[in-house]
Model the fold of this input.
Amino acid sequence: MRLTLERIRKEAGGDILRRGEKYYQQKRVKLVSIDLDRFDAEVSGAMPYRVSVQEIGENLYSSCTCPYWTTCKHVVAALLEAKDWYDENASDLHQARTHPPWKRFF
Ligand SMILES: [Zn+2]
Done:
C-alpha cells in the first residue's frame, strides 16, 4: 500500500485529521498485522478500537469498531502509523513476494 500524507488527507477532513495526527503522535496505534495491500491495527482511545484498511485498486476501504459513521480519527492515526511502516519495509516485502527466497535454489 502506497500511503502518502496527501492520500491520507483525502480520507478525512480538518478536525478528524488533526485528532488522528494527535493519536498517532501519542503513539496510540499498534499495528496488529500488515501486508502489501491491507493492514489491521489497534488504536487505544476511550476504549481499544480495531481498525482495518484494505487497498483495492486506487481506493482505500477502512473500517473501525467505533460508532463514528465515516472515516474516524482512529483510521487516520492507523494510516499514519502504517505509512511509516510501509516507507521502511514495503520494498523488502514486495521483493520477498515477487522473488521468494527459495527460488535461489533452482
Ligand atoms: Zn474509529
